[in-house]
Amino acid sequence: MRDGTILEARNLTKRFRIGNRDVEVLRGISLKVQRGEFVAVMGPSGSGKSTLLQLLGGLDRPTSGDVILDGEIVSQLSDREATHLRREKTGFVFQFFNLIPLLDVYENVALPYTIAGVDPRHGAAAARIRDVLEMVNLVWCERNRPDQLSAGEQQRVALARALVGSPALLLADEPTGNLDYATGGEILNELWRSCDERGQTIVLVTHDARAAAHADRVLVMGDGKIRDEIQLGRRKDSGAGPLIARLAQLGL
Length: 252
Ligand SMILES: Nc1ncnc2c1ncn2[C@@H]1O[C@H](COP(=O)(O)OP(=O)(O)OP(=O)(O)O)[C@@H](O)[C@H]1O
Ligand SMILES: [Mg+2]
Description:
By secondary structure, the protein is of the alpha/beta class. The chain has helices spanning 49-56, 79-89, 105-109, 111-115, 123-135, 151-163, 181-198, 209-212, 241-249; strands spanning 5-18, 21-34, 38-42, 64-69, 72-73, 90-93, 169-173, 201-205, 217-222, 225-231. Magnesium ion binds at residues 49-50, 173.
C-alpha cells in the first residue's frame, strides 16, 4: 500500500496537570496526512504545536483519542511496541539539533543503526549513511565533531540522522528556529527536495510563514484546535506572499 493515508489523528486531546490545575492543551484534533505530502502546522507560541507533534510521533501519549501511523493504532500498542514503531517509521528534527558532542558527523548520523545493534561501518548501513551524507552535502566533514561545524551544517547532520532509516514520516519541530535567514532557507529547500524528489512525507511545525510556505498544506492551530486549513499545493516557488495574504484574510 504505497498510496493513501500515512498518518491520522482522531479527536486527540492532551491535558497536563500543573500544580493542582488541569490544563487542556489539545482539545480535539483530527487530521490526515497523505503519503508523500508536506504539511506545515502553524500557530502562536503555546498553541500546542510541539505537543501535537510529540503525539503524532509517538514520543508522548494523548489523554484521549488515537494516532494511526501507517495502519497501526499507536494507543493500542505497549510502550515497547510503540517505541519500536516510532524508531522504524519516524525521523525527528528539532530546533536545537540534539547532536551528540563527542561523536563525529558520521557517528551521529549512524546513531539509529548503532542503537539497533547494526554495525554502521559496513554493508548496506554504510552505503545508506554515505547516501544521506551526500544528499545533505556533508561528506567533506564526516570526521568533524558538531562543535567544529556551523549551525546550518549541524542542522543538516540532524536531518541526515532523521532520514537515514528511510522513515515513512519525517517530523520537524522549528528546525530553522535557530538559524539565520539564509541558512534556514537552505534547510527548508532540503526538506522540500526530499519530499518532491523522494516522496518523503513531512510534518513541519513552525510559527514562521516563510517556512510554512514550503508545504503543500498548512494547518493553523489556536485554542487547542485546528482553526483553519490552507491548501497551497506543490510548487517550485515557495514565496510566502500567498500564504501571508491568506493568513491575513483569516485575521491571523
Ligand atoms: N510536559 C508539560 N507539562 C505541562 N505543561 C506542558 C507540557 N508540555 C507543554 N505544556 C504546556 O502546553 C502548552 C502548549 O505547549 P507547546 O510546547 O505544545 O506549544 P507550542 O505551540 O509548541 O509553542 P512554541 O511555539 O512556543 O514552541 C503550553 O502552555 C505549555 O506550557
Ligand atoms: Mg513548540
